[in-house]
Amino acid sequence: MNNLSQAIPFFGKRNPKLALIILLVLAFALPLVAAIFGRTWVRILDFAMLYILLAIGLNLVVGFAGLLDLGYIAFYAVGAYTWAFLASPQFGVHLPFWIVLPLGAAFAAVAGILLGFPTLRLRGDYLAIVTLGFGEIVRIFMNNLTHPVNITNGPQGIGQLDPLVIFGLEINRDLQITDTISINSLFLFYYVFLGAVALAVLLIKRLQVSRVGRAWAAIRDDELAAKAIGINTRNLKLLAFAMGATFGGVAGGLFSAFQGFVSPESFTLMESIAVLTMIVFGGMGNLAGVIVGALALACLPEVLRSIALPVQERLFGAVYLDPEILRMLLLSLAMIFMMLLKPEGLLPAQARYSRIEHLPGMKGSGQ
Amino acid sequence: MIKLLEARNINKRFGGLTALSDVSLSINKGEIYGLIGPNGAGKTTFFNVLTGAYVPEEGEFVFNGSELPLGRPDRIVARGIARTFQNIRLFREMTALENVMAGRHIRTKTGLLGVLLQTAHTREEERLTTQRAYELLKYVGIERFAQTLSRNLSYGDQRRLEIARALATEPRLLALDEPAAGMNATETGHLRHLIETIRNDGVTVLLIEHHVKLIMGLCDRVAVLDFGKKIAEDAPGEVQRNQAVIDAYLGGAHHAR
Ligand SMILES: Nc1ncnc2c1ncn2[C@@H]1O[C@H](COP(=O)(O)OP(=O)(O)O)[C@@H](O)[C@H]1O
Ligand SMILES: [Mg+2]
Question: Which numbered ligand comes closest to the C-alpha of B13?
């Protein structure tokens, strides 16, 4: 969070405390502002929060450990389907969230290790191709696990998922405060997701400045040299895949609960690419950049879409560009312009893996 | 004299090329041992099989009384062998301090859970790691660049940083692959001083160099490789007078530096 608040122009660096407060206020007020323009915008913000979670997790794999993963959305799918299996009428199992979410995370972590093992020796393009295939395999499984026993319901997906109930509070329902005043479920979800993002940021910051984070960065920067200082690159790569997948799994579970419905079409290659685009756009390796990138690319297409659709109708009397196509188009354009103007991303990585205040006679963050 | 490392009949082939042919040598505790020979003689390959980057087809290493696991760099480092590279290999996106901190990996314990929960032990180890790394930067004389990204350091300082990172693993044997390459006379002088200090602090040094003056001035003993074969192993003065060595290496064009 410090990192993010320091990214605020002008007083981010000069007055970090004030910047942090501003950031928190902004984070809390965001859905209230969005609501002025309509409920859909709060919904979009909810999804943006999930994308931030995904981007944070993928950044751990790609940005920290340097393992290009194009099948990341598969872990999102594992988390989502875990919820669908264990908290829905599908098998008649209805477990509470504090069991289902960790289980989803654990299954995703296992999937991460399964993906990690065969790819240990691969780097760059080759790794990207295999992970891409992995993502597709998972999606195709979700589509086809209907015979001989129906597990996933195939392309129809699984519906009527259990709501998210936290301490007796049902997040999927509007919270009735008095007879006339109620808080919309979309807001409740926003704050739950915000909490998840805050926790994720905290954990990632801890990982980054640690023995583990440095080992990942070492593998990313020079695998041979990392081995030469005794880092067990196999174990640490598997750990990176597993940890990254864990974030995806949790995001997937939350996604399921939010939607109340899952189907394979939410987990296409395009989604993997969208998340990767977010971290590249924002600044790979840098937590603040990743968050800003995810927020921007989750919201911007929606903003432009809400403008583009009426404009199309006004001008041509019909909608020629389907919203989904438009979204990919905008993501691609964003990428192209970013690569041309600022290849290192919106907020380039200044990720640090040490705390200089640990040195005697050193205070503050140095240069 | 106590033997620290004994290489026994090491053979390493790349396809049809025999990079190391029956190389046997032994290094005593506390000495500076030179490994010289013309380009392509197999010196770097010897480092690579010793540190587990490659697996030799035949042969074994006995280190500090027991056999080394072949092809297991992490376990070899844990046993106490550290190396630097002929072409500097630092962690580019990390500061000098962080490079050395990464070098502490094998000598520290914090695991995933400790990191996520930030236990008291984790925080204490992190603090100690930072301090130890800073001391090592001081030791090699580049502590003023602690906060500089390693890729922004000068060439000579990068070489020093690589040595500091290797020392962070607490080696008994430090293997340096052409540490003076590309250094000017002043830098080479500092390097020589540093290597002597390291040895005086109890670390045995295995040194590949082309810089004849540096080798002859520093080393207690020298082995000469030529086409993958050891053609001599002796005190520097003797090696310099050895006719086979003069023919293969010292007498020829390689004397340039
Ligand atoms: N990974 C490799 N694959 C194929 N040949 C190699 C490899 N590494 C080294 N060699 C060859 O082995 C020989 C010895 O190389 P090297 O050990 O680097 O020599 P030196 O360090 O003494 O200059 C050279 O002929 C080199 O081309
Ligand atoms: Mg060499």
Answer: 1
CATH number for the segment(s) A37-358: 1.10.3470
| 203-242 in chain B: CB under 8 A from chain A | none
Contact at CB, A228 and B73, closer than 8 angstroms: yes
d(CA A256, CA A263): 10
B-chain CB neighbours of A212 within 8 Å are 110-112, 115
Return the residue matching tokens 């392309």.
Answer: A155
On whether the CB atoms of residues A206 and A198 are closer than 8 A, the answer is: no
Chain A positions touching B112 (Cβ under 8 A) are: 212, 239, 243
pLDDT digits (tens, 9 = 90+) for A5-18: 666 655 566 677 88
Structural domain spans, chain B: 1-80+171-257, 90-169
The CATH T-level fold of domain B1-80+171-257 is Rossmann fold (3.40.50)
**Tens of pLDDT along B217-231?**
999 999 999 999 999
Sequence-ordered alpha helix ranges (H) in chain B: 43-50, 73-79, 96-103, 112-117, 120-140, 155-167, 185-200, 212-218, 236-241, 243-245
Strand-strand pairing, A87-88 and A93-94: antiparallel
Q: Which residues contact B133 (CB under 8 A, 6 or more apart)?
A: A354, B97, B98, B100, B101, B103, B104, B164, B168
* Residue in A with minimal Cα distance to B48: A228
ipTM of the complex model: 0.94
Domain ranges of chain A: 37-358
Contact A209, A355 (CB under 8 A): yes
Q: Which of B76, B105, B146 sits opposite A211 (nearest CB)?
A: B105
